[in-house]
Design goal:
By secondary structure, the protein is α/β, with parallel strands linked by helices. It folds into 2 domains: 201 residues, inorganic pyrophosphatase (n-terminal core) (Alpha-Beta Complex); 120 residues, Diaminopimelate Epimerase, Chain A, domain 1 (Roll). 41% of the residues lie in helices and 18% in strands. The longest helix has 16 residues. It is globular.
């Protein structure tokens, strides 16, 4: 595992840093990239942002968002110019090469030294270039520590980007599991000038009409079992196509199921184009759904996890329900809040 002193020193010595995150970037990865780019930009050092996929439009308000590049739309000459002189790459909000998509493939082929800054549980400890805190609420919380360690002024722009990262991954501070650290980080970032009103308006209060129509129909389809402790719903491809929702719109759909009284575990079956399903699992904090995701060859956080699995839907649903029932009925006490 990479220590913060070593990571900070490598960043200080780098002259051209490439910042990236997982495919289809989300608010946590986006906020971290932008904050680090602002913190690292000093005389003699530049930072560029390159991803497999563009930023969702609701993050366009963030300082520096217009500088982010989607590797997949760059022509070969622009790709070569982008990589020229890069002496360090930093991947945030993941520690897995496969999650970086086309950018990860290029980095591995080019042999550019790459480090990872993450908060997801590490199952493969074979990569020594990972700075990770699985107890952290978000990659934003981890990057806040890193930026503090690097020293230098924290501008309102940097603070706004980091606040966005933390707020996004905690669903506006709903999922903290009793931890005070994210609140302390948020308070410090507000003191540094984070524009919390802009974050609320753009990230949490700018849903498209299509997304509202999607959620309206989706919530009408909710079903429950296990004496009301499990809520589940299927997202058909036809519903996604008809409402024109984006992948970013779909990210928080499963969290609405957890808001039903008495529900401990929420399950979402999202039909994909390749006749497979994305299974998303969430828990209010008493049951570790990651163990279910792992048995489906997936993974994630203790209380927020997922997997991709083959249909048919009826067989997959019964398999998932069986694993969830096994977890709910286990003789061991439910998982404690970390």
């Amino acid at each position: 595992m990479l220590q913060i002193d070593d990571l900070s020193e490598r960043l200080r010595q780098a002259c051209r840093v490439l910042l990236t995150t997982h495919q289809t970037p989300d608010g946590d990865g986006i906020g971290c990239q932008l904050a680090l780019s602002l913190a690292l930009e000093t005389p003699g050092r530049t930072a560029i942002i390159v991803n497999d996929g563009g930023f969702p439009s609701r993050f366009d308000f963030l300082p520096g968002a217009d500088r982010a590049l989607d590797w997949n739309v760059l022509d070969p000459a622009r790709q070569a110019a982008t990589l020229a002189g890069v002496d360090l790459a930093v991947a945030v909000d993941t520690h897995a090469w496969a999650m970086l998509g086309s950018v990860g493939e290029v980095l591995r082929e080019s042999a550019i030294p790459t480090v990872f800054v993450d908060h997801h549980p590490i199952h493969d400890t074979g990569n020594p270039n990972v700075f990770c805190d699985p107890e952290a609420s978000s990659a934003g919380e981890v990057c806040w520590r890193l930026i503090q360690h690097l020293g230098g002024p924290v501008t309102p722009a940097t603070a706004t980007c980091l606040y966005t990262a933390i707020a996004y991954d905690t669903n506006s501070f709903k999922y903290l599991r009793g931890r005070s650290e994210p609140h302390r980080a948020a308070a410090a970032l507000i003191a540094h000038g984070a524009d919390t009103d802009a974050v609320y308006r753009h990230v949490f209060a700018s849903n498209s009409i299509g997304k509202i129509a999607f959620l309206s129909e989706l919530l009408s389809r909710i079903e429950r079992n296990a004496d009301g402790r499990v809520a589940w719903v299927v997202i058909p491809r036809a519903l996604v196509d008809r409402t024109h929702v984006t992948r970013d719109d779909l990210r928080d759909a499963v969290t609405h199921l957890l808001e039903v009284e008495g529900v401990e575990v929420a399950i979402l079956f999202h039909e994909r184009e390749d006749s497979r399903y994305k299974v998303s699992l969430r828990s209010k904090g008493n049951y570790p759904v990651s163990q279910v995701a792992t048995r489906l060859a997936g993974g994630g956080h203790l209380f927020a996890a997922g997997a991709h699995a083959d249909g048919p839907l009826d067989a997959l649903r019964e398999r998932v329900f069986g694993l969830v029932r096994e977890m709910l009925n286990a003789p061991t006490p439910p998982a404690a809040h970390p």
